[in-house]
Amino acid sequence: MTIHRGSGQTKVYLAMGIGLLLLLGTSVPCAGDAGAGDGGSGTSLNNGTVQTETVRTPERAAMLSATLPGLGQVYNGRYWKVPIIYAGFGTLAYFLNMNSREYQRWRTAYIARVDGNPNTVDGYPHSTDQLERAMRVYRRNLEVTYLLGAALYILNILDANVDAHLLDFDVREDLGLRMQPIVNQLPCGRSGPGLSLTITF
After folding, report:
1. How far is Cα 134 from Cα 110, in angstroms, rounded to an integer?
2. Quick one: three-class SS letters along 94-136?
3. 108, pLDDT greater than 60
4. Does residue 152 register a pLDDT over 90?
């Protein structure tokens, strides 16, 4: 029986990491979100009544996500991202448990094989090299799982911070730049061609 190095599991980790980056790393605000979080404090007067605007700051969003993953996304109003974050953590928890269990199993068998004690029997038909290789593969997978968990935690914080910044990004349709030719009035009653540059916002 030959023990393979688990390249398929590494591909699963890679695909999962890329998927999370694509889902959490790109967050383009909608037109209706432009006024959702103006990023500043203050009040507005509407029909004689004072209305307090919701203040969303990137620092607070990042702090909330650092305290509890997904809380910064809730703070920013990006509720749909919370299940994605916890699905990622749940998947990593599954692989963490599996790799830890397998690593301990192959490590125990390897130690029983090389400890020189005839009373300890590993019960595996594999060679010593195969036992050691399996132990190293699962230890590597365990380390990769820890790294992916840390990366997902940091990505969750960065996503909340960037999202809060983008809430201030103006995406109104009346933003524009227009150039058109004009006739400039020069001194002494003369005129000459020119170019008008108009920025609307």
Report:
1. 9
2. HHHHHHHHHHHHHHHHHHHHHCCCCCCCCCCCCCHHHHHHHHH
3. yes
4. yes
